[in-house]
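> forwarded from #structure-qc
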């Protein structure tokens, strides 16, 4: 299946389906541990505020989607092998799915926990772009090494 055989809509559906192949249980554990560590650091350094949980929850979500997204473009085991092959060939499209999901969930969490709408939009947006870049670069480097 080449890129010319797939419509734009089908490409988006393949990207979301490919993202579901990531190691999401490991991603959840990583997110919880990272969020708890961030909360512990905030408590130890006395960063007390009304939005005390916004930062640690954002960190937990970022780690969750980073581990799951990277795993979806790197992993070779489990799931449909044709879908895994498509994900390895199109890492930037696959990266958009977890980055978009991160943006939405982080925006909602930060908006509810901090009450600052515009700051939440900006923070979620730039962190989502960084997440997409990390997943895309890791997927591209991994794919180029496999070809070589």
């Amino acid at each position: 299946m080449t890129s010319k055989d797939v419509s734009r809509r089908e490409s988006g559906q393949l990207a979301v389906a490919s993202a579901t192949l990531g190691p999401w249980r490991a991603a959840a554990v990583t997110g919880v541990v990272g969020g708890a560590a961030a909360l512990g650091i905030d408590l130890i350094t006395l960063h007390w505020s009304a939005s005390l949980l916004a930062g640690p929850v954002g960190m937990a979500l970022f780690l969750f989607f980073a581990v799951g997204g990277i795993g979806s473009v790197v992993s070779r085991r489990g799931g449909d092998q044709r879908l895994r092959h498509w994900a390895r060939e199109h890492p930037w499209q696959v990266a958009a799915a977890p980055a978009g999901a991160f943006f939405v969930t982080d925006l909602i969490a930060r908006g509810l926990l901090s009450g600052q709408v515009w700051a939440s939009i900006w923070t979620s947006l730039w962190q989502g772009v960084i997440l997409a870049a990390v997943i895309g670069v890791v997927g591209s480097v991994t794919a180029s090494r496999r070809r070589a």
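QC bot note: The chain has one domain: 7-147. The CA atoms of residues 34 and 108 lie 19 Å apart.
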